[in-house]
Amino acid sequence: MTQDTDYMQTEKTATLILDDGTVFRGFSFGCEKEVTGEVVFNTAMTGYPESLTDPSYAGQLMVLTYPLVGNYGVPPRTFDADGIATFMESEKIHADAIIVSDYSHEYSHWNAVGSLGSWLKEEGIPGIYGIDTRALTKKLREHGVMMGKIVIGDAKTDLTNFGQYGNVNYVDKVSCKEVIIYGEGEGKKRVVLVDCGVKHNIIRCLLKRNVTVIRVPWDYDFNTLEYDGLFISNGPGDPDTCDAAVQNIRKALSGDKPICGICMGNQLLAKAGGASIYKLKYGHRSHNQPVRMVGTEKCFITSQNHGYAVDNDTLSADWEPLFINMNDGTNEGIRHKTKPFFSSQFHPEACSGPTDTEFMFDKFVELL
Ligand SMILES: NC(=O)CC[C@H](N)C(=O)O
Fold this sequence. Notes:
Blueprint: E1 2-3, H1 6-10, E2 13-18, E3 23-28, E4 35-42, H2 48-53, E5 60-64, E6 68-69, E7 97-99, E8 102-103, E9 106-107, H3 116-122, E10 127-129, H4 133-143, E11 146-152, H5 170-174, E12 180-182, E13 190-195, H6 200-207, E14 212-217, E15 229-232, H7 243-252, E16 259-262, H8 264-272, E17 277-293, E18 299-310, E19 319-325, E20 331-336, E21 341-344, H9 359-367
Parallel strand pairs: 4-5, 5-7, 6-8, 7-10, 13-14, 13-15, 15-16, 16-21
Antiparallel strand pairs: 1-9, 2-3, 2-11, 3-10, 4-11, 12-14, 17-18, 17-19, 19-20, 20-21
């Protein structure tokens, strides 16, 4: 058992203020700075290193409903020769803050190299504990997600400006800036991966299936490239801010090369096919979202992190829902009726969460 002893000297009080004026008081265990963002809750019991480094959390203050957080520390920030993180989902923390009930100042795990608190401090990310996350989650569930602010100590703060989430193009902030090629090799199938904020396990899952991955920026016109299949990644923010990607995907829809998308990828593929997206009240963020494959009795438990959804009623005649969420009936994936185009709103790559739907990658690679 290793102890995060920093806190004995330095921990200060911290406050979470929601944009309706509700105040939750706690203590700071990360970087001591004020931050604003969309307050969202995740009900997974584990996986804070993966969730914090998932680029889809950019702009959000992540509430974990599991009460004890930090007890297994954080893994090393190591990368393989291609620059893919060994134990995390990107190069850095993308969530703007973490909000927990009980932060464990002691940690123990075979792979831990430090405490969650010291990692947050190194990366300049606020963390607040001592929050009644049950009351906070009930509030978000009833009201819907809201903007919030974390204030350290008794600092005076502007309680009128909570920033905005919906109109910001977060994808542009987190996408790669130039083309990156992984696993190049003679005779291998070439997959273009549109990087809207890709989780590294999507790249790992593709490379494991022996394809070359050509990772391109979110607004890159990949239609000029030689490739065998198109993969569209997850990503943060509102899909309606990603029109350039939608235009490029729409061009690819006139061809027959396989297309697969995950989460933001599902939304952008749906938009390219003419469907609309709407914002869910409080989203799906957990490891246990049940989905049913349409036309079958097959159900899967899935890992999810999204706040928007495809409106099933707006799918054109060429498309149909592929998966439906068994809790609330919302869209969890689409497929084209005649061409090899399909996608999921959930995360088949997991990391963290159940790996039951990894077959989505097998299906895609088989079709190449
Ligand atoms: N993980 C994702 O790709 C999320 C997609 C989108 N930002 C949403 O919240 O719905």
